[in-house]
Automatic annotation (TrEMBL):
Record's keyword terms, sorted: Membrane, Transmembrane, Transmembrane helix
Endpoints of the signal sequence: none
All residue ranges annotated as the Thioredoxin domain in the record: 62-215
Entry's Gene Ontology molecular function annotations: antioxidant activity; oxidoreductase activity
Record InterPro entries: AhpC/TSA, Thioredoxin-like_sf, Thioredoxin_domain
Membrane-spanning ranges: 20-39
Protein name: Peroxiredoxin Q/BCP
Amino acid sequence: MGSTKISTSQAKGTSRRSGLWFVVAAGVIAAVVGLFLIYQGSVNPKPTNAEATSTVYDVGSPGIGEAAPDFALPATEGNTVNLSDYSGESTLLYFHEGLGCQPCWDQIRDLEMAPAILQKAGIDSLVTITSGPVDLIAQKMADDGLGSVALADTDLDVSRGYEANKYGMMGDSRNGHTFILVGPDGTIQWRADYGGAPNYTMYVPVQQLMKDLEAGRVS
């Protein structure tokens, strides 16, 4: 039986067609991958440096260099706490939205879990302040296993004095996410109101918080 022979020209033609199909297929795949990456970029845009580091914040009044207004508020432990009780210490006040804002309580948890970081930053005490009935705040602290000083500013009288209710997503009816460092002499050394527009930040990583404090602190 005779064998079938393919001419050299036919073989070359077949090779060229195979190569062409490979190039076309590779181009289609590249286009599909490119479109997918563009789509992913539009759906999950890469955060800007400001968004990634949470360093965007306002500075309300009273601000750095001003005397921190004294206050007396009921604590979840059943006693009354005055700011003047912390005279001679560097005290970090944390005004937060409170009940219904889980990231706010997570913020307290993470601060409590970083005593060495706070000590390195020269912070002696952490005092948290939010609106709401003192018994409900106490229950939330217990539920989350938190042990910081927690004060109830139910009518926002103290918060208004610090303008901590001006930087949040709830208008002026609740606090936002404000940190104020009060020095040993009662003077405000640093302030950051994170909760205002446009980001309405309700949680700041502790390391970033300390970086912001270090960068903006005036002793």
